[in-house]
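REVIEWER CHECKLIST
Item 1: Sequence provided? yes
Item 2: Single chain? yes
Item 3: Sequence as submitted:
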Amino acid sequence: MHIPYRMGRRTDPITGRIQFWIAPIPTRLEQINSGQLRALAVAGNDRFADLPGIPTIKESGFGDFDASTTYAVFAPKGSPPEVVDKLYTEIKRALNEEVVQKKFRATGVEPKLGTPSEVTKLLESQIIQWADMIRSGGIKVD
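Item 4: Structure as written out by the authors:
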C-alpha cells in the first residue's frame, strides 16, 4: 500500500520521528559528521572516501544495490565532437585539481570522471535499473 509522506523529511530523521531514511550523502553529510545521524550503509558500488568505516549495502549483505547519485554535464545533441572533447578535457583538468577535489568532498560528493561514452552507458543502465524497479514495485505517480 502506498502511503505518501511529505512532512518533515529534512528534520524527521534527526528528531526521531522516523527511524530510517535513504538520502544522498551530500544532503546528510553535515548531520553524519556532527553525530546527529548514524550512517548505516552507502547505497553505491564503492565506499565513500570520507566515510571509510561505512560499508556498502552489498557489503552489508543486502544484495547488489546501487542508488548512488550521478552528476553529469550535458551538451545539446549534435554538438561538434571537438566541442565535446574540449569540455571533457577541461572538466578532467579541473577535477584533477586538489582544491576542486576537496571542495566536492566537503559537500559529500566524490568526483569521478567518465568519458562521454562511459557516462552515456552509465545513464542508460540506470534508466533500465530504475524502470525495472518501478515496474516490479507497481509504483505509480499520485
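Item 5: Key structural point noted by reviewer: Residues 1-67 form a domain with the D-Maltodextrin-Binding Protein; domain 2 fold (CATH 3.40.190.10).
Item 6: Recommendation: ____
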